[in-house]
Write a structure and sequence with these properties.
With 95 residues, the chain is mostly helical. Helix content is 49%, strand content 0%. The chain has one domain: ACP-like (Non-ribosomal Peptide Synthetase Peptidyl Carrier Protein, Chain A, Orthogonal Bundle), CATH 1.10.1200.10. It is built from 5 helices and no strands. The protein starts with a helix and ends with a helix. The model has no long low-confidence stretch (mean pLDDT 89).
Length: 95
C-alpha cells in the first residue's frame, strides 16, 4: 500500500460530500492545493494517528503542510504499520 493512496482515501472519507477534493499526486504538494482546509487537515491527522498507532498527546503536535510532512511525522512516532489495501485500512477505522 502506498502512503499517498491511503492519504487520499482518508481525505475523501473525512471530506463532506458536497466539497470538492482533488487527489494529491506528489508528496511535497501543499495540502491546501487539493481543496482541503485546516479542519480537514486536522481530521486527516487524527485518523492517520489512529491507523498508525500514534498516541493522541503526540498526534496533537502534528502540523503538516504537505503529505510528506504527514509521512515524516508518522514514521517518527508510529507504533504499528497497517496491513492490507488502502480500502481495507480505511474501512477498519472507527469513523
Amino acid at each position: 500500500m502506498k502512503f499517498l493512496e491511503l492519504f487520499n482515501k482518508v481525505a475523501r472519507a473525512i471530506r463532506p460530500a458536497h466539497h470538492d477534493y482533488a487527489d494529491i499526486t506528489v508528496m511535497n504538494e501543499p495540502i491546501g492545493n487539493s481543496g482541503l482546509d485546516s479542519m480537514d487537515g486536522l481530521m486527516i491527522g487524527i485518523y492517520m494517528a489512529e491507523i498508525y498507532g500514534i498516541p493522541e498527546e503526540i498526534a496533537k503536535e502534528m502540523q503538516p503542510k504537505t503529505v510528506q510532512d504527514y509521512l515524516d511525522f508518522i514514521n517518527k512516532h508510529k507504533t504499528k504499520d497497517p496491513k492490507g489495501s488502502a480500502d481495507d485500512i480505511v474501512s477498519g477505522v472507527n469513523w
